[in-house]
Amino acid sequence: xxxxxxxxxxxxxxxxxxxxxxxxxxxxxxxxxxxxxxxxxxxxxxxxxxxxxxxxxxxxxxxxxxxxxxxxxxxxxxxxxxxxxxxxxxxxxxxxxxxxxxxxxxxxxxxxxxxxxxxxxxxxxxxxxxxxxxxxxxxxxxxxxxxxxxxxxxxxxxxxxxxxxxxxxxxxxxxxxxxxxxxxxxx
Length: 187
Ligand SMILES: Cc1cc2nc3c(=O)[nH]c(=O)nc-3n(C[C@H](O)[C@H](O)[C@H](O)COP(=O)(O)OP(=O)(O)OC[C@H]3O[C@@H](n4cnc5c(N)ncnc54)[C@H](O)[C@@H]3O)c2cc1C
Fold this sequence. Notes:
Pfam families: Evr1_Alr. With 187 residues, the chain is mainly α. Helix content is 49%, strand content 3%.
């Protein structure tokens, strides 16, 4: 979690409605992919001089987070979906990472092992929530990805995810079930 408090329009907000510290990009704007959508809207509204109610929430922000979006002008299919917040980005990314592990060869070649190491290293550099990325980079430095087989990689990924779960105060996932969750299903 980022530790600094932030200053918006001469007011100081250490946390948004979710209770988390609000993270800002280098340009001083709230970072969408580093905050929850509610906190992002809260901080954006604060930036424009709108104030929170007594519960700490900006009513429009809460409403916006829950609103069903209209279609993009001229499109019958595509909706005006908001860019991903930290949670949606996380869920989508874990889906990719666990599924890639689940489909990794049982007996990978040296080239496939190298590709997976490189992919995880690059992923940890470019993950678009910078404070999440830094911790993941460090995790990879401390516990090198185990790429010798599908089972080892799936287990490693589960442990890496649990490291984040622990940091966020969430229940740990039982890694005995990683394959059911991400490959075989539950019958
Ligand atoms: C590399 C990375 C680093 C992240 N770092 C941060 C961070 O520093 N701060 C932050 O706020 N968010 C971070 N996130 C996002 C965070 O991990 C969650 O994705 C987000 O909070 C949404 O959580 P969720 O409860 O919806 O489920 P998620 O944690 O996204 O999990 C999705 C699903 O995966 C399954 N699952 C859960 N744990 C495991 C496990 N250990 N192994 C296998 N399957 C599992 C469950 O079925 C769960 O429903 C990170 C995401 C990634 C990919």
